[in-house]
Amino acid sequence: MKIVVIGSVAAGTSVAAKARRNTEEAEIVVYDQGKDISYSVCGIPYHIGGEVEELSALTPRNAAWFKKRYNVSVFTEHKVTHVDQAKKQLEVTDLVSGEKKLENYDVLVFATGASPFTPPPFNQKEYDNVFQVRNIQDARDIGAYSAKQPKKALIIGAGFIGLEMTEQLIHKGLEVTIVQLEDQVMPPMDADMTFRVEEHMRAKGVNLILSDTVKTIEGETSVERVITTNGVTIEPDIVILSAGVRPNTELAKEMGVELGASRAIAVNNKMQTNLPDVYAVGDVAESFSVITGKPIYRPLGSTANKMGRIAGDVITGGDLEHRGVLGTGIFRIFDLHVGQTGLTEKEAKKEGYDVEILYNIKPDHAEYLGGKELTIKALADKETGRILGAQAIGQGGVDKRIDVIATAITFKAKAEDLFHLDLAYAPPFATTKDPVLYTGMALDNALKRNPLLTPAELIRRQNSGETLQIIDTRSKKDFDKSHVKGAIHVPLGELRSSNAELDKDVVTVTYCNKGVTGNASQNLLLNYGFKKVYNLSGGNKNYQSYLKMLKSKSK
After folding, report:
1. Does the predicted model carry a pTM greater than 0.90?
2. 93 SS3 class
3. If DSSP states are collapsed to H, E and C, what string results for 6-24?
4. Mind listing the pLDDT tens digit for each residue in 486-512?
5. Which of 98, 118, 376, 379 could disulfide-pair with 388, CB 3.0 to 4.6 Å?
6. Where would I find the Rhodanese domain in this sequence (predicted)?
């Protein structure tokens, strides 16, 4: 059996390595049009910023290493230009010599990855100071240009790469401007969470321009000046395009491979396409949601490695299957860590779920040992209690909490299950009631007896004219500083003696600064016979953040 893999980064090399581990009988050949193999795309921003000193650290393996270790023939700077499925034959061009050859195969694997999207008007002309961050050659090119010591950078797009490059260029002393088409950074997340990121970025000196695009470019060989659709003029020394990627499906489409709803290659759980003996893995292939079962496209190196291993196993007689993804991701922006897993609020509602939403604001570990505030937004299905997703922002402990919740979602955990997890505790690492445990406890309470109300829902109800009895249970000092519109001040300590003055039949909302005292007040009123009592999720702190977001987006 002869296995030919097109592409040699995370997915392609994983196919070859797993296939060889399973059998010594197969001939395995890999073609890649680039110069480098098995490199870390995700590490490139950190090399550009100087955290990774040597570029070679991102390219630990080469073709010779693969041949010696796995007896796999890897041909770099070779482009597959045509596939004849009937003959099971490839046409391959040596990009250095220009020579062409025909190559037969028994099994073909597309690991052709994805290419960065070049948005207009940058797609009209090439400029010597415009770069993308997708491969090792891009890193070399940016490094070479950095010798000119640029002072001002323009970044187009605020996804993973855009934000990571922002952090690294700020660290290098550049002034950074981001232009983002959407009205928020990290569009896959909920806007009320990414607003916290936006505030942090602006505090660090980033010029963040949202809901805008570059309309015109001035300059012949270099971008000297750009003018946005909204009339903002920017004069960058260097431009980084990070406006997303598109799967490299052209060759596959040409031979009749079907694409999925996401426009990536459609595959089954064994990474097989619609054509016999043709597989697709990595950023060129479509995945599916663990929660909904529907196709999704989440091009990440971790998923690519997993897909490659599965395909390599299946091709050589194994029984591995792809079990889907949750879209779990994490990034660092200065001293803030931001992670997510599962469905966001907007995605859950689009899928038809009636969700309970919790904003949990707690220290990531004991405050007396330097614990810093961690905000978790978690969702549970009201019908089943199942955890659907979570987003977390903080200066530490984000990865731990997101990974625990991702694991729980994978095994279909309910909110109550989170509370019963036996998680590691010691003051340097967690609180006695870990943020994950508290998330499960509070969501379970909300599903059964203590409903939560988000700031968005509270404002919607107020704007609709609904009569609400809103009680601020904090100190007078905190109340005077800021409070929810229409709230009355009744501290928790006085609520037992004064609740008779309140109307038990009117929908009541309690709140404190972050949520705990509001919940205690909610319990008290329910025990005294109040018919419907909500606790404002995330308290006044979350409410004021939401108001600030609305104000900023309306400008």
Report:
1. yes
2. strand
3. ECCCHHHHHHHHHHHHHCC
4. 999 999 999 999 999 999 999 999 999
5. 379
6. 464-552
